[in-house]
Structure formats: structure tokens, C-alpha cells
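COURSE: Structural Biology Practicum
ASSIGNMENT: Worksheet 4, Part C
STUDENT ID: 0417
INSTRUCTIONS: Below are two proteins. For each, the amino acid sequence is given first, followed by its C-alpha cell string. Answer the questions at the end about the second protein only.

PROTEIN I
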Amino acid sequence: MISLAELNAMPQPEFVARLGGVFEHSPWVAERVAPSRPFVSVAALLDAMCAAVDAATPTEQLTLIRAHPQLGPRPASQAPQAPLTEASAREQRRAGLTGVTAAEAARLAQLNAAYLQRFGFPFIIAVRGHDPESILASMERRLAGPAAQEQRTALQEIGRIAGYRLADLVHT
């Protein structure tokens, strides 16, 4: 962990390097908030990062959403994806997604494919506090929702993920 005071004091490239993975494969978020230092709290840092995402272009937001991995085991037959980050792997492991049954893995694969086909980006949920059953239920429910709402929901979930990651990385 690093202190907020240390983050506030470090040179911008180091700040970006430390926080570049908070938003999956998207160091631009940390780059955009670095000039706003010093932050008075981790919550203020998260708020600034989420505001940078909200102010991003629709193309940047969609690229951020698409930078996230699909949930669950990756079938060998699946087309290559961006490498799973250490944080994503840890989060999925903690939620029990690496130890799902064959039936759950098949259902995850089916829902991931349907979701991706319908919305053009992977299903995103902050998995902390979830288990495979609750994740599958969320996927089924959200698959039926309107596209515009689902993109907003994906960005909200990305903000939650970022909050958890910041809490794991930074202390006051």
C-alpha cells in the first residue's frame, strides 16, 4: 500500500504508473487527474477519476468498457482477449469464478456470448461480495435491459471496481 500523501507528492509519471491499473488497461484516467493533486482523501481521488471517465468521449468510454475481461473461465476455443490483469484475476478468484462447476462455466460462457452480441461489450460487475450464482442472476437480469442503460450501468460498475482497487492500494 501507499499513502495518499506519497501519491500526492510523486512526479506525474510515477503517479500514473501506480494508479494506471485502477481502471482496467486505461492509464489515461490517472493521467487526467494527476494535475488535480493534491487530493484530500481517497474518496476525492476516486471522485476525480470517475469524473474523468464521465467527461471522456463516448469512444473513450466504450474503449474503457471493452478493456474489461469476460467473467469466468476462458474457453480454449475463445478468440484471444487482452491479458487478464492481476487485479481482475484476483477479483474473479475471490468471487469463486475460477472454481465454478462445468454447468456454471457453460452458463457463464453462454451469457457472456449473448451479452457481448447484444451490447457490443463484456458484462461488467464489481464482483466483490458476489458469488457465481448472484453473478449469473445479474447477467440474466441485465441482459434484458435497454442498451443505453446498460452502458451507464457498466460505467457505474467500473467506478465500483476502481473504488475497491483504490482501497486496496492507497491508505490515508
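PROTEIN II
(use this one for the questions)
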Amino acid sequence: MSIARSLVLLPVLSAAAFAQSENGGMEDDFHWKPFLLQSSFFMGIQHSFRFATEAGTRANLKGPFFRDFGRSLKGIRGWGDNDPFIVNYVGHPMMGAVSGFIYVQNDPRGRVAPFGTEQYWRSRLRAMVWSAAYSTWFEIGPVSEASLGNVGLKDGTNGAVDFVVTPLAGTGLMALEDAVDRHLITWLETKWNNRWYRMLLRSFLNPDRSMANMMRLKVPWHRDNRMGLGYSYGNRDQ
């Protein structure tokens, strides 16, 4: 339990330290309350989906909670966890990107930092740290796959893959979506001043940002760094 506790606490404390140092020690600059609420909302959706679609998860809710939770934590061995490729190497990176975008959208400086600048990469590094913390909590925290469904109780059902792939590949997806938004979507938006066209571009070419937007009860196509769908690019330097 001490190892699992450290895995959860260290990334969270590191994320807080990053945010504090970036804002000159003024923690209020980072929107902590909505950040935690949005992260909790996202995790609630994920666990609800598990309960709705996985009969094994529902079945494993039975039995002694704390004993089975402890045994599940001890079941983390090796790299793989017996999940399909699409879950480990597509689904989990997307989870890492969404949790990372939730961090970024609550960082007043990071969410408007121009792509590729030093401030941009610092903000995405902090988001990656949070993504690692979120992933760890989702896997083995008090409200997790290990506690709700006892993933890891059976040999071979929990490994290091999700702890590593989620934050690393998730940050890569974030950077890819940021690059697409900066260099492709904004360029395509100049070609046709139509709200539905721009709505679809922003939503479907940046799916993880769209999901993160919905976690703060905004439309999927919302952008913090530019005007709304009806904006004219005629005199704007992109």
C-alpha cells in the first residue's frame, strides 16, 4: 500500500509545485476548484462506462472490499494487462490527453500559450505530470479499477503499460492536436466563413480537447485562444 500511495501522491504534489512555481507562488492563478471538479466528472464518466459495459466489473463488486482492493494492488506485475491493443494504445493515450487538456484549460497562462513556445512546452509538461497522477488514481486509487472491480486480483490483469502509456502517449496526442489546431484548423477556417463548417472542424479534428471542453460544460468547439465561430479572418495574421 505504501508504494501505491506514493505513486498517487508524488505526481499530485509535483503538479501542484509546477503550478505554483509557474505562477510565482500565487496558487489562486490556477483554477484549482474547477480543475478538480472537471477531473472528477471525467473519472465518474469513465467508471460509469465500465459498470455499464463490463459484466465482470459489476460481478467483482461483491466480496470484502478492502481485502480484495489490497490483493488487487499486489497484482501489478510486468508490462501487459491482458487488454486489447486498441484499449492500451489508443484508449489510454486519449484518456491521458483529455486529463491533460483539463489541466491546461484551468491554467490561465498555459491555455493561451502559443504552440511551440517555451511557455507552451512547460505547460504541457505540467499537464503530463497531472496525466500521470490521474492515470495512477484511475488504476489503483481509492476510486479506481483496482477498488471498483478489482482489476489486478487475477494474475495478468494489471501491469505497467497503462501507467506509462497514458501520460506519455497522451501528451503526444495533446501536442498533435495543438499542432493540428494551430496549423490546419485555423487555416481551413479562413477558407469558408460558415459556423457549421468550423464547428465540425474544431470538434472532430481535436477530439480530446472537445471532450475536455465538455467536462467544463462548454461546447466541444470552444477555443480559449481565439474568437468564436463567426469570426472573420480577413485582417488577421495566422
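ANSWER KEY EXCERPT:
Q1: Residues 97 and 170 are 4 Å apart (CA to CA).
Q2: The radius of gyration is 19 Å.
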